């Protein structure tokens, strides 16, 4: 983390640590899984991730994708800092490592550029390819040491239990780097097996 961001975080009266970004530079970087933006025949926006398509949510021209609009929105609510993280639709924990690893790397580089543009307003968490333990440790180290990110950000469903002993090496890396790991729920069935249909009535 650069000194300007560290000072801003220490002095901020208000910090939003739950804020997501959708980055132009990452479009198509997960191969056949996208992500991809487009519009329907009736000009309604859509966002595709693998076989899942989110209809009617406008990312383009919004604070999700434009830093200046985000900063202006923060100003309207007197928010000093935001710590940005990946869109939950793009955790990509269930796709092949050959696609997940480059996506996370591109996402982290693109998001760190936002931090560089507004280091006294924006900080970031890293997207992580949980399919490959060696790759995830390498990406977290790169994101923290080279990009100045605050820690890692993953979904609650990563294809194995969060207490799986295979993850101990990753958790040890978080401890070694002395960074937090944020765990965020994501809808089942986006890039992996569909969840229990009974939970849909509760938006779970």
TrEMBL record:
User: What would be an example GO MF term here?
Assistant: hydrolase activity
Gene3D superfamilies cross-referenced by the UniProt entry: Metal-dependent hydrolases (3.20.20.140)
Which keywords, in A-to-Z order, does the entry hold?
Lyase
Q: Name one Pfam family in it.
A: Amidohydro_2
**What biological process terms from GO does the record include?**
secondary metabolic process
In its keyword annotation, does this UniProt entry include Flavoprotein?
no
Ranges of residues in domain Amidohydrolase-related:
15-188
- Entry-linked InterPro entries: ACMSD (IPR032465), Amidohydro-rel (IPR006680), Metal_Hydrolase (IPR032466)
- GO CC, any one term: cytoplasm
What is the official name of this protein in its record? Amidohydrolase-related domain-containing protein
Source organism per UniProt: marine metagenome
Instruction: Specify the taxonomic lineage.
Output: unclassified sequences, metagenomes, ecological metagenomes
């Amino acid at each position: 983390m650069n000194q300007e961001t560290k000072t801003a975080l220490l002095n901020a009266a208000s910090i939003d640590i739950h804020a997501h970004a959708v980055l132009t530079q990452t479009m198509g970087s997960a191969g056949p899984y996208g992500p991809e933006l487009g519009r329907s025949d009736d000009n309604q926006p859509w966002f595709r991730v693998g076989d899942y398509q989110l209809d009617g949510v406008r990312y383009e021209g919004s604070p999700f994708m434009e830093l200046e609009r985000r900063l202006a929105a923060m100003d309207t609510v007197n928010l000093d800092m935001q710590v940005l993280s990946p869109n939950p639709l793009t955790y990509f924990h269930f796709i092949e490592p050959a696609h997940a690893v480059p996506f996370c790397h591109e996402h982290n580089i693109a998001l760190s550029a936002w931090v560089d543009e507004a280091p006294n307003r924006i900080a970031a968490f890293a997207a992580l390819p949980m399919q490959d333990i060696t790759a995830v440790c390498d990406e977290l180290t790169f994101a923290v040491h080279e990009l100045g990110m605050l820690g890692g950000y993953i979904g609650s469903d990563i294809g194995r239990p969060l207490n799986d002993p295979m993850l101990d090496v990753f958790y040890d890396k978080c401890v070694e780097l002395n960074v937090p790991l944020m765990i965020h729920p994501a809808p089942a069935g986006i890039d992996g097996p569909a969840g229990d249909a009974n939970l849909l009535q509760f938006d779970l």
